[in-house]
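Weekly modeling sync, notes
Attendees: S.R. (lead), two postdocs, one rotation student

Agenda item 3: backlog of single-chain predictions. S.R. asked that every request posted to the team notebook include the full sequence so nobody has to chase files. The rotation student volunteered to paste the first one in as an example of the format we agreed on. Action items at the bottom.

Example entry:
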Amino acid sequence: MPNCTFHIVDAFTAVPFTGNPCAVVTDADGIEPADMLRIARETNAPETAFVLASDKADVRVRYFMPRGEIPFAGHPTIATGHLLRELGVLKPGTARFEFAIGVLPVDIRPDRVIMTQPPAVPDTCADAGTTAQALGLQASDLRDTIYIRKEKYGKKDVLFSM
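Predicted structure, as returned to the notebook:
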């Protein structure tokens, strides 16, 4: 496994150790996916971002949780954009990030990073009754404007809201 440097970045805060932490490896070209997973397990951050070269966008990013790769996530996108701005890799303006789900714009500003979350995929949504039961709620407790998706995380089914 190659040596790499990672940064711990707290998203959604200006105060260290109070935001959503994300480990970011800024030069991940040449790191194999199995090693990315090992690094994510070692950092034990909720997500670890791996920044790679892209022929479709300004950067390509892969995200790993300690239990596996995920195709996209919000707070590591904000953390990665912030760090790349601070390191001078990205300048203020609209950057294009390549993810497993496609290429998305990320607005890099001098004082913040803004992204647009892609829409939920309705055909993967769990029904309200099943979702409410899993959460110990009544179906009427759920807002009908939020999609709930059931996905595999390792061997377990988990619910995500969008």
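Discussion: group reviewed the output briefly. The mean pLDDT is 85.
Action items: rotation student to repeat for the remaining queue; S.R. to check formatting next week.
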